[in-house]
Amino acid sequence: MAKMSMKARYSALTRDLAWEPSYVEPERVFPHTTFEGITIHDWSKWEDPFRLTVDAYYKYQAEKDKRLYAVLEGFAQSQGHLTLSDARYVNAMKIFLQGVTPLEYAAHRHFAYLGRHLNGPGPRFAALCQSVDELRHTQTEIHTLSNYNKYYSGLHNWSEQFDRVWYLSVPKSFFDDAVSAGPFEFLISISFAFEYLLTNLLFVPFMSGASFNGDLPSMTFGFSAQSDESRHMTLGLEAIKFLLEQDEANVPIVQGWIDKWFWRGYRLTSLVAAMLDYMLPKKVMSWKESFELYFEKQMLEGLFPDLAYYGIRPPLHVEEARAEKELLSHQVAWTLYQFSFAAAFTTTTPTSEELDWMSAQYPETFDKFFRSNWEKAARMAEDGKRFFFQGLPQLCQTCQVPMLFTEPGDPETICQRSSDYRGEHYNFCSDGCKWIFDREPEKYVQAWLPVHQIYQGNCGGPSVPEVLAWYGLQDGDGGEYVGSRDHKNWRDWHAGAGVDTAKVGG
Length: 506
Prior knowledge:
With 506 residues, the protein is mainly alpha-helical. It has 22 helices and 6 strands. The chain is globular, with a radius of gyration of 24 Å. The N and C termini lie far apart (77 Å).
């Protein structure tokens, strides 16, 4: 026999092991791939761009794990946590552990589900590999950041907090939305929108920032994960092309999902924007630069011209996102500063050097709209009048972010949209979130909004101490960084070592 080609050999090792049901109707075996309106004529047309076998996959991942755990061991043995740029940096990793790691586990569970319920052997195997990837990411992130839990506050109760704390309802609602959709919409939401948008911005520029701030373990697991994310993004792109090539009737359905999940993913990146600009003591790349490179260049100018062949246009509301790149991180960081007393991380005002850096990065907007706020907050803190917002903010019904964003073209007016549905009034932070709600109102009226739950008495009690206790927060987890447990420990650890700890709090 002639030697088989690589593609034929891969098919023999994987797809030839699948079988067609002979005594049960396919619709009963795979009941979930028809109700979304998607038409599939030939599952064998699914292309597997990486063509991995189980054997090759586990060997590849085992090598990456060996390198990662060697770095973790060396960092822990050498007291590497003392070599960070500043204890303030750990706040960014607290948000990462609280808000990203649970999403990895949720993705693991639902891709395992798809590994059973997708008809074709090609997508089933791709879903299986991604499920294992996501579980590995969950484990490596927990192991990496567990070292910091020995020394810093706010890392001890992240799993329970993911289900309860107000700002974590933003990532949680994103995934709740995705896993309660159909299988094809889930593929678009996670493998396309989430992977192309959020993980690109998180695992590349932010993990470079981790390295720059002395966090070698986080950089290592971030770049280790990014090699998997590349495969996940390819899975998302393959899913889109497969659906579009199967039937022309799929095009408007896929376009609607792209429109929806772009905006949902973009709103989720608002936390990443604040982490990049405000939580890295040593700056590497601003949110604006990251957005321009990893979204505008790679997606808008690189990907969507290719998808235009299939009749797909760029997402709705994309121009609103582009206009917000000058404002997003500052608006979110200002909100986190005011509400960190009810969070599992601390905040403080930027140093004068950091303010100058942001003035240079955002010359059109920062000095005009934001710098004076931070300078006034710093003066108040120095006078012993550090302020926190003691009320409860209005939340967007769709993305669940507090209503902090401003009108397009008017950075001084809060944006607010609304819709009425079955006698109830619902509020939104943007045209994009209102558009999403109006398409599926019966889904979003069920949203678990933290502020509403507090008012209804479902969060431990009516007072702030009772709510914080229900959150699982401990003294020192949140509030002002200067004078906090982490700040005091950092100064004590470096006392007499010639380390300048005076820039933030002295």
